[in-house]
């Protein structure tokens, strides 16, 4: 008898997940992986709604599955990473969870989760839970670039302590902008739980002080804070402006954020109490 996975992967309702994202089960392959990654990113928002409402259920797979698959909600990187890695494992992929630092790695904590996939002798970076997520995995090779869907990304090998790490960058405003840097240290469930605890409870952290809600829609990426809306389209100037009074509620509908009546009312009240953006 196989020992239970420390990541609870045997508890995953794979059929239910695949039904939600709209992708059939398939043996491991690069095309199947690409399709699954894009379907996941498009199916679920990146957001910190439950952090703001002080009701986050945690990042154990059982809690994430109930939230994402059961209720059609989204969340942030620890949740996306835990769920997506479990889905891949259940379908026979060789995966490894890794942690990274968003922005300047000399000052940022390890508050981002990515998934390394080994397939047919190649290592690929899957990153389904970032605010501006890639739509498909990128080969983990120094200098690798990907422009799928018109969104330009690049990976660079960088030193991390006495080892190595990987910096993911996106092309923005005519230059490469650092998104995050992940290292190759082993990751266990307690690492995700600890990172989540810091991200969701540390008073000064931005997850507690602003709304973050993003989603890839057809031909555009929408990013909301409690004060602004940003719409990006490949090959077009970025639209960035202040939210109009009452507009956030309309965007909750547009982005299909599935909140109960009480949750929606509580969120709108909470964002009204948030401090102005710096």
UniProtKB/TrEMBL annotation:
UniProt GO MF annotations: acetyltransferase activity
SUPFAM superfamilies, sorted: Cysteine proteinases
Matching Gene3D superfamilies: Arylamine N-acetyltransferase, Cysteine proteinases
Family: Belongs to the arylamine N-acetyltransferase family.
PANTHER family, A to Z: ARYLAMINE N-ACETYLTRANSFERASE 4-RELATED (PTHR11786:SF0), N-HYDROXYARYLAMINE O-ACETYLTRANSFERASE (PTHR11786)
Protein name per its UniProtKB record: Arylamine N-acetyltransferase
Source organism: Nocardioides islandensis
Source lineage: Bacteria, Bacillati, Actinomycetota, Actinomycetes, Propionibacteriales
């Amino acid at each position: 008898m196989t020992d239970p996975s420390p990541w609870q992967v045997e508890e995953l309702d794979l059929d239910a997940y695949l039904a939600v994202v709209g992708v059939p089960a398939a043996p491991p392959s690069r095309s199947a992986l690409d399709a699954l990654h894009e379907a996941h990113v498009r199916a679920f928002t990146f957001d910190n709604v439950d952090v703001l409402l002080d009701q986050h259920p945690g990042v154990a797979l059982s809690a994430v599955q109930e939230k994402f698959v059961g209720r059609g909600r989204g969340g942030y990187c620890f949740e996306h990473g835990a769920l997506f890695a479990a889905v891949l494992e259940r379908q026979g992929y060789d995966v490894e969870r890794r942690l990274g630092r968003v922005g300047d790695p000399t000052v940022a904590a390890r508050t981002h989760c990515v998934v390394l996939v080994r397939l047919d002798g190649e290592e690929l970076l899957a990153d389904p839970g970032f605010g501006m997520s890639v739509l498909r995995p990128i080969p983990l090779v120094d200098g690798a670039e990907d422009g799928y869907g018109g969104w330009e990304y690049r990976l660079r090998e960088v030193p991390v302590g006495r080892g190595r790490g990987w910096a993911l960058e996106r092309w923005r405003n005519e230059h490469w902008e650092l998104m995050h840097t992940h290292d190759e240290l082993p990751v266990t469930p307690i690492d995700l739980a600890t990172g989540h605890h810091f991200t969701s409870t540390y008073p000064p952290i931005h997850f507690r002080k602003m709304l973050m809600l993003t989603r890839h829609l057809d031909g555009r990426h929408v990013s909301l804070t409690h004060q602004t809306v940003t719409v990006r389209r490949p090959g077009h100037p970025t639209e960035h402006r202040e939210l109009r009074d009452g507009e956030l509620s309309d965007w909750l509908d547009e982005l299909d954020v599935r909140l109960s009546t009480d949750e929606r009312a509580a969120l709108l009240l909470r964002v009204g109490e948030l401090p102005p953006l710096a």
